[in-house]
Amino acid sequence: MELLEQHILKEGYALPGNVLKVDSFLNHQIDPELSLKMGEEFAAHFSASHIDRVLTIEASGIAIGLTTALKLGVPLVFARKKKSILMTEETYSTEIYSYTKQETNMVSVLKNFLPAKENVLIIDDFLANGESALGLARLVEEAGSTVAGIGIVIEKSFQEGQKRLQAAGYDLYSLARIKSLDNCQIEFME
Amino acid sequence: MELLEQHILKEGYALPGNVLKVDSFLNHQIDPELSLKMGEEFAAHFSASHIDRVLTIEASGIAIGLTTALKLGVPLVFARKKKSILMTEETYSTEIYSYTKQETNMVSVLKNFLPAKENVLIIDDFLANGESALGLARLVEEAGSTVAGIGIVIEKSFQEGQKRLQAAGYDLYSLARIKSLDNCQIEFME
């Protein structure tokens, strides 16, 4: 998605250790118009499948999950990393390791909000090693539903995530695909 | 806001201990259309002030913060409860106690994304004791900016928050005001 690549080149920057900082428009400060356009792009791409709901994970997935769900006309559900004491009903839960926070979170979704026999679109901001997307897919499948697709804003194509998702047979669509961050230079896939 | 009150009466329910559960449309599963309409309502209400940005807190504030910022045509920033290891720049930070999670979080915003001399609209999903809204207001003021207003989706008017915000002189606008949850009955303010 060219508009996104322009934002990444203009506002993002690469740091040593294959880190791409895009917190001025994606995951701390958020550009609402860009979020809306990205949601439109995901909705258009996955519109051939019937989608029943969008699933993402707090916190950085919520904005882009919301605009996607808005355009698809379906509910959004976000997996929680920490249970509220109000979450007393039964949940689907799985462990997800975060490399950027260096911790493992038990993420949970109330069973009520992840019914069986649905087609669920998973949306997330980043794909690196695939931990988050694969964790969300486990929740969908544990619920007896189908992963209709996985939409990612920024894929680090040089890491393992995209291979792992494709090997597992998921329909992956990434709006920007980073070929390399070597020498702190941002290079996109052709 | 009548549409919101209808949703609360239809899908929400009260539990002992003055708890109102609205996780089927507001803070776990999210109704995108309703979020958009609530954002429109906040934007319309606060449009008399010039707003430079919207500030909220992860995770439940992000959806409604986003739709408000979208309608106002300004950026959204969300305060983080846990610093990413990528958040190496200087931050404004303050402690906020969560009654529903029974923990104190140090919440932070990168200084870059909370500049001085702006008019900042604070948006949050719930107002109970006012801890979260007052904490966000401290961040805005520490940054040398002005709290243009505080927009709340659901105010528990029988708790201290609204009095504390008004005593501090903030322009508070709540889309639904709950007078009482006694005997697990939801009663709105007139």
Describe, in short, the structure shown.
The structure is a homodimer of 190-residue chains. With 190 residues, chain A is of the alpha/beta class.
Labels describing this entry:
homodimer, alpha/beta, six-stranded mixed β-sheet, two-stranded antiparallel sheet, 5 helices, 11 strands, globular
Polypeptide structure, described:
Two copies of one chain form a homodimer. The first copy, chain A, is of the alpha/beta class. Helix content of chain A is 29%, strand content 34%. In chain A, the strands form three sheets. A six-stranded mixed sheet of chain A has the order 5-4-8-9-10-11, with helices on both faces. Chain A has a two-stranded antiparallel sheet with strand order 1-2. In chain A, strand 9, helix 5 and strand 10 (172-180) form a beta-alpha-beta unit. The first copy, chain A, is globular, with a radius of gyration of 16 Å. At the A-B interface, strand 3, helix 2, helix 3 and strand 5 of A face strand 3, helix 2, helix 3 and strand 5 of B.
